[in-house]
Specification:
Elements lengths: L1 E10 L2 E10 L10 E7 L6 E4 L1 H9 L3 E2 L1 H10 L1 H10 L3 H16 L8
Parallel strand pairs: 1-5
Antiparallel strand pairs: 1-2, 2-3, 3-4
Helix pairs in contact: 1-3, 3-4
Length: 114
């Protein structure tokens, strides 16, 4: 079975993750089919980049996200957009909506200094 899962990269005690498409029987950091995103929980706020067009393609072919990736998809809205894709909405509009949401997430949070 093909899974969408996190692959750990980075130095010791400084993890960051790639979101990859991988066979479920391969080890966590073993061979993978494709990189579809990046997640860094150490930044404030955490950095999350997803290529939703590729994720939708793989999920349409039967790839299942792991629990941790499913939670990330839920927080970014990717899971909701995939459900709308299954109901018949256009892929291009959903991908553009995802890019707009990513830009909004990436906007720096300003704090007032006194």
């Amino acid at each position: 079975m093909v899974r969408i899962r996190l692959r750990r990269v980075g130095l010791k005690n400084q993890p960051s993750y790639r979101i990859v498409i991988q066979d479920s029987e391969k080890p966590r950091d073993g061979r993978f089919l494709e990189i579809v995103g990046f997640y860094n929980p150490r930044t404030n706020p955490s950095t999350l980049t997803i290529d939703e067009a590729r994720v939708f393609d793989w999920m349409g072919r039967g790839a299942k996200p792991t629990e941790s990736v499913a939670q990330l998809f839920k927080t970014t809205g990717t899971a909701d957009r995939f459900a709308r894709l299954r109901k018949g909405e256009a892929l291009e509009t959903l991908v553009e909506e995802g890019k707009a949401a990513e830009v909004k997430r990436a906007a720096p949070v300003r704090t007032s200094e006194k």
